[in-house]
Amino acid sequence: MDRNHYRFLSVWRLPAPPAAVYAALARVEDYPRWWPQVRRVTRRDADAADITVRSALPYALTFTVRQVRRDAAGGVLEAAMSGDIAGRARWTVTADGAGSLARYEQSVDVNKPLLRRFAVPGRPLFRANHRLMMRAGERGLAARLRAV
């Protein structure tokens, strides 16, 4: 196992139809409005943006996301990532009763030197940090969707 490779899976239950959830997730430039750990998003062009995130631990990650798949009918958003983390991320939005499920899959390698240096002892903390960030994102998006 590569100590600097991570795979994450999160499933968010959201109180809105899939089209509304998909539209919110597709507007990456709005993430800082509802996701506290997404500190900054700067659009490069229609398909790419630079993102800076910081969760509970005292480090930030900055990376570029470049859209590789956008399928509104299938509820899929997929992006390639480069920078402090490199790899792929994918949202898949499906109906769930009156609401939606948003499934987030991420497979990345960590490039940030500080995190690479502490890869073995820090791994459980880095994974917990990611869980906290994802939980806050789910709560933030759910609140935003309820307010619309």
Question: What is the strand and helix layout of this fold?
Answer:
Blueprint: E1 5-14, H1 18-26, H2 31-34, E2 38-45, E3 48-53, E4 61-71, E5 76-83, E6 85-96, E7 99-110, H3 113-117, H4 119-147
Antiparallel strand pairs: 1-7, 2-3, 3-4, 4-5, 5-6, 6-7
Question: How do the SSEs run, as a string of H and E?
Answer: EHHEEEEEEHH
Can you tell me the CATH architecture?
2-Layer Sandwich
Determine the N-to-C terminus distance. 44 Å
Number of strands: 7
State Rg.
15 Å
Reported for the largest beta sheet, the result is: 7 strands, antiparallel
Short description:
This protein is an alpha+beta fold. The chain is about 30% helix and about 45% strand.
Which key terms come to mind for this protein?
single chain, Alpha-D-Glucose-1,6-Bisphosphate, Chain A, domain 4, alpha+beta, 148 residues, 4 helices
